Amino acid sequence: MKDKIGVIFDFNGTCLFDGWLHDIAWRTYIEELSGCAVSEDDFRRRAAGKTAGQILESFLGYELTDNMVYQFSEEKERIYRSLLAKSKLELAPGLENFLNYLTLAGVKKTIASVTSPENMSYYFERYGLDRWFKWESVVIGSGNIPLKPAPDIYLAAIKNIDMPADKIVVFEDSEIGIKSALNAGIKHIIGVTGDSKDQTLKNKPQVYAVINDYTELSAENF
Fold it and tell me: 111, exposed or middle or buried, with CB in 10 Å at 0-12, 13-18, 19+?
């Protein structure tokens, strides 16, 4: 097995079902900035599928510079980490056993995430990710790396684990992430719906299996 495949994980929504914490962090910070209450339904309606800049501009009502978006987003992430620290949120069900299995089998693996370096550092510390991943192989979509659906983040991850794209299995939870993997030449994608509940992933021909979490993995879909 170790000579046949490599595995790349998106992280948030795939390895950690934390979407609800990000929503709370956004709403909390937007309310601080705007001085107006933001309902859960209103936030979801106006934020779904939007970038951080688009979310902020939608609620604040004025255009932001790239630097302002960066600064505001960093503050939102600080609130998110504070919420996560107070929560009892664990890694996705079955993930630890699956990662142990891959490690024992000698399968090359890494993470390709659009989270911040500060968040990833926190995940490594809190969840002991160094049991399974090398920090230097992890690709974080910040700085000069074009974000998904551009292929760059996955191309970098492929290079880091030194495996051909057609031998890579990717775990993704979003359409934009799936497009990024496909654009990088990856053929084998497993959709994870445990956080997003996005059942439309099942209708995408490029996704050859869809799981709610890692307890559902089997020899047939991996």
Answer: buried
Tell me the CA distances in angstroms from 111 to 19, 53, 65, one per residue in order: 18, 24, 30
Q: Distance between CA atoms of 14 and 12, rounded to whole angstroms?
A: 5
Q: Which amino acid appears at position 61 of this protein?
A: G
Q: Report pLDDT digits (tens) over 190-203.
A: 999 998 777 777 77
Clarify whether residues 134 and 206 are in a common domain: yes
Domain containing residue 151: 6-17+90-216
Instruction: Give per-residue pLDDT as tens, 126-165.
Output: 999 999 999 999 999 876 788 888 999 999 999 999 999 9
Q: With a threshold of 0.70, does the pTM exceed it?
A: yes
Count of domains in the chain? 2
- Which of the 8 DSSP states describes residue 51? -
